[in-house]
Amino acid sequence: xxxxxxxxRRLLYTIPVLLGVCLIIFVLFNLVxxxxxxxxxxxxxxxxQIDQLHHELGLDRSFIVxxxxxVKSSFTFDFGYSWATKQNIYEMIKNGAGPSLSITxxxxxISNIVAISLALLVAFYRGKLIDKVMLIVSIGGMSIPSLAVxxxxxxxxxxxxxxxxxxxxxxxxxxxVPYVILPVILYTFISFxxxxxxxxxxxxxxxxxxxxxxxxxxxxxxxxxxxxxxxKNSMIPILTNIIIQIPTLILGLLxxxxxxxxxxxxxxxxxxxxxxxxxxxxxxxxLSALGFMLFGIITDVAYTMVDPRMRLK
Amino acid sequence: xxxxxxxxxxxxxxxxxxxxxxxxxxxxxxxxxKGKTLGIVGESGSGxxxxxxxxxxxxxxxxxxxxxxxxxxxxxxLVNMEPGEMRKIRGNKIAMIFQEPMxxxxxxxxxxxxxxxxxxxHQTHLSASERAAKAVDMLRLVGIPSPEKRVKxxxxxxxxxxxxxxxxxxxxxxxxxxxIADEPTTALDVTIQAQILELMKxxxxxxxxxxxxxxxxLGVVAETCDTVSVMYxxxxxxSADVKTLFNHPAHPYTKGLMDxxxxxxxxxxxxxxxxxxxxxxxxxxxxxxxxxxxxxxxxKVTDDCRGSQGDPVLKPSKGVDHNxxxxxxxx
Lengths: 313, 331
Known about the structure:
The structure holds two protein chains of two kinds. By secondary structure, chain A is mostly helical. Chain A is about 75% helix and about 0% strand.
């Protein structure tokens, strides 16, 4: 079986999963959630107004038809219009993706480089002073609530020292750059602790393997051993942890964008939840599910690239 | 007399533990000659592998360290050598193969890549294509069929015996003066074992290197070694050339090891007798007895062995170059 038929098969497997996700969304929004008429028309609407609204939203049709509307939208990306802003949701997502990526893209690259380098460093100096200091710093970073880090960063670096913009956004490069520096730094700090500890464990699993002893007996220096032999063998769990972050990058950082007033998909989703803007929430839920399924497949394909033992026969 | 290439003198290797320092190797002496094979025999934990790692400069430090003694390679001291200097010798002049062929190769790099790596490191004058050609040559040398195809394969596509051949190819690709083989055949089938030993002997003849063969298998020793040192509790208790040792073992421990080899009476086709074992257990390194370390398991034990005469030292028994550390040697 070659890689193409494998990917094709995995894509086919996503269909039942997608149907299930759509079913859950349908049950939650159409059966469990309150009638949208209460949200849109308020308490004093007449039955005629309610019936008219149900007709406009297509809620008077059979459940089967409504369910397949959701399924259809996950293929066409036609999610209809927002209740709150009356805008086309597809256009809203297109507008929000840029600002989201401008913050999550650099954050993704920088935080992973920082975490992997630090993990290699502390794994190399395991048990030494720097390992112990980094343990304390990592646990500290993990323990401080992210909101406290954000508030402190905005107050101290943004307001007191005036080094960075506290919040806001400007579209287009390089206009956005000053606005994303502070969130990228702060969220790198928030995430590095857990990631570094995790990567350190993964790397230490490899450091004591026999092939490392072989590499030493060849006369290789420790840097080559760590960065070539050990790192490539540690890549499977590391890749899993990295790739699974990507869908969240595209969907935006839910809270971070609100804290920094960045008009990305994260803020859009938070606003939609606050306004009970069901179509937008539905659209974002479907996109998340699609994203996780897609990157699950990409993870599996990436495994075969780093580990020949997983290569398909 | 052949050329002496490695000299180990009074080597002591210590490991720091929670219960105090432990001497895993305690005053070991031996020489390795060009083109000759030295066997080091002993039970698990007798200090064989630690001795080998000490020569390679690969004792994990901490907790371990060479506490005293000398390791002279062509007259140059390897103990406390500057790490960069040592790396030039390791894999180049002194190479090592290990007991675990299944796990000693890196699973995510091709065989060819792993052979070329060591060539690139130590033979800097070779170009990339020359290195690739040499990797193929090395695989052919160690008897791997269709080497041009195999260089592109990964370790998991090879059997244990083939992997050990690859390890040997890596070890020999820089034509070392000394090959240390730490139980190279223990993890392999008996038929493969014979093939690997044959291969090592053949390559030794071609390349003229000295071999240190570490094993607990006296059969392997009889087949391949020129001289033998028997280790017990971090010390050499007997050393001799291989014929003398097998015909006239002088230390009761050596005798015990030989009696524990299963044997067949070839005329009647029956097992000769119940298999002999050495009674008792190896004493803990934390709690070595006064006098001879073997006293509690020895049938010839006398008061001399219990510390009244001090510790037994390695001294000539009858015969040339036959040394034994025993107060009551056999024969």
